[in-house]
Design a protein that fits this description.
Domain 4'-phosphopantetheinyl transferase: 3-96
CATH topology: Ribosomal Protein L22, Chain A
Helix content: 25-40%
Oligomer: single chain
Keywords: Magnesium, Metal-binding, Transferase
Number of domains: 1
Protein name: Holo-[acyl-carrier protein] synthase
CATH class: Alpha Beta
Shape: globular
Distance between the termini: 4 Å
Low-confidence stretches: none
Radius of gyration: 14 Å
InterPro entries: 4-PPantetheinyl_Trfase_dom, 4-PPantetheinyl_Trfase_dom_sf, Ppantetheine-prot_Trfase_dom
GO molecular function: holo-[acyl-carrier-protein] synthase activity; magnesium ion binding
Order of helices and strands: EHHHHEEHEE
Number of strands: 5
Length: 120
Amino acid sequence: MTVGVDLVHVPGFAHQLEDTASGFVDHTFTPREQKVRAPHRLAARFAAKEAFVKAWSGARLHQPPLLGSVDLREIEVVDDGYGRPRLVLHGHVAQAVGPCTTSLSLSHDGDAAIAVVLLD
């Protein structure tokens, strides 16, 4: 089992969202995730993607880190019918990780959004 944690500064993240010319939103979030409009909620979902990559990298000891080579749209944060977030893996990420169990916790307060991912 490995753990990944990521913290996002919400005001800085909101500026990235406003820069439509950069393509950040389309290169980071799936169409389903883009339906979430509140910057603090998207920041928490971005933190979840980064936390997953950190947990996955932690499981790959003695191998190169993954952060720059992952399509973050293949790591999707969706809510269950009760609003609880979970991760859904797609494409190359799903193939590379293989069968696994993930646990996800998101939180945001003030200027910070955080995510914790357990990967087993």
